[in-house]
Amino acid sequence: MHIDIIETLPSLAKLEDNWNAVYDADDEAQIYLSWKWLGGWLSCIPGPWFILAAKERDAADLPYVGFFPLRLQTTIEKSDVFGDIRMAGNFGADYTGIVCRLEAENKAIPAFARTIRQMNWARLHLDNVRISERRWRLLTACFPKASFHSTKVDKIIKSDGIDNSLCPYATLPKDWNDYLDALSTNTRQKIRRLLKQVEASSEYRITVATSETFDRDLKTLLGFWDKKWRARKADRIDSLIRTNGTMLTRSFQSGLVYLPTFWHGDRPVAALATLVEPRKRTFSFYMTGRDETFEGPPAGMVLHAYSIRHAIEHGFVEYDFLRGNEPYKYSFGCKERKIHSIVLETRSGRNLGGRIDVRCIPDLLQQATELHRKGQSADAEIGYRRILEVEPKHADALHRLGQLLAAKGDFAAAKRLFRILTTVRPDAAKAWQCLGQVCESLGQYEEALRQHLEFMRLQPDLPDGFVAVAKCMAKLGRMAEINAALLAAIEPASAPSVRKWRDWRPTPDRQSVGEHSVSA
Q1: Is the CA virtual torsion 374, 377, 378, 381 positive or negative?
Q2: 276 has which bridge partners?
Q3: Is pLDDT at 370 greater than 50 in this prediction?
Q4: SS3 of 95, please?
Q5: pTM
Q6: Contact by Cβ (8 Å): 85, 5
Q7: 15, 53, 131, 317: which is deepest, by most CB within 10 A?
Q8: Per-residue pLDDT reduced to its tens digit, 74-102
Q9: What is the DSSP letter of 226?
């Protein structure tokens, strides 16, 4: 089995037909693995992502038979840099997993695992994976206990005992009344009464978001959700609202969101967002919010019943309540499925191969730079060094590590880095300036003079170069040349015989023993 790595949106776009063909043939595939949802999500997440794509052999004309979407994260901690591979949908998707043709899974899934084992990571987060036991064993068998430590992730919320590894869902019949008949007598009667109360009254109404009203309805939903959860999720609430808002907007633009709002007159009292998957004919309830001060009909039950009826009328076959075994979900005639969440860690606790994944460089550079700005120089230094281990001529890492080393007095090491930087970016004036400065700090004034002259050549209109050159020449005792330059600078600019200081160039190897004072 041959594995390609897809890591750009244009490359993913070219796979639409191939992806959809595999997705349609896979009974385990679900909306968060659909080409439409995943493409929208990957276009807005930070950090690098990649998709492992499997085919029978390395031939351009062969279609792929399986896809495994993943993402990379890097953290600086415990005096080292650790790579994490996560499921691509994490933080936006309730479910993650693999898309694969049934007849290819025995070869494709182990091939995915072997490819991952060749990468540079310390932790592999297989989180919220909705997958059959058969496929789960194929995947995890390739990470033996001798080399990897496995930890099950506890999905039970301590505050209320809700188990987020259990996912209730209702199978939908073709007829609304048939669905109601399968519920308890109490629930059936309650749903009929509530829908009649809402739809027969001029006091209440339900609207469904359109392109004209979506922004308003989403703002209503997120506002209600914020009020309910801010106290519990205070440290993460703003990030969650941004992520949910971005994901739902992208999904709506792709035709994947059903968002009804329940109104009491002109007052919105509840909203419910559901992800719609026409290929698999599923509704997946994503989030809801309501006005806690509203004392009318139970808005959550109204909107769920309204959405389920709509799904049945349009030929959908499943209403998925996603993660969490809240008791109310089971009143809608649900069964449940269980999802997997484990973390696999290398036995050494370090990255496989002892290095970082090159795709993490931009993210790691950003982290190291931020730590550098905050004065956490030890962690910043390890970040820069890990980048240079895999890309020795990375200009930004060379520059920033050189600055860090110079600041702590290691001028010889800083000089080596800035010297390399001038070969990588010979037209970058700052590189020559930094090299000149560390040469000065080492007392190497003749060499520093040459670097500052190059800075002057690249930035002739900045006085910094002239000042640096003058300082070096003063240290070398070449005062006459400095005085000549100063005299030229204060002469009238109209004098044809006078050169401006920025056009002045001393000869680096010229020796002078003049005793003239700069201020003379």
Answers
A1: positive
A2: 283
A3: yes
A4: coil
A5: 0.87
A6: no
A7: 53
A8: 999 988 999 999 999 998 999 999 999 99
A9: H
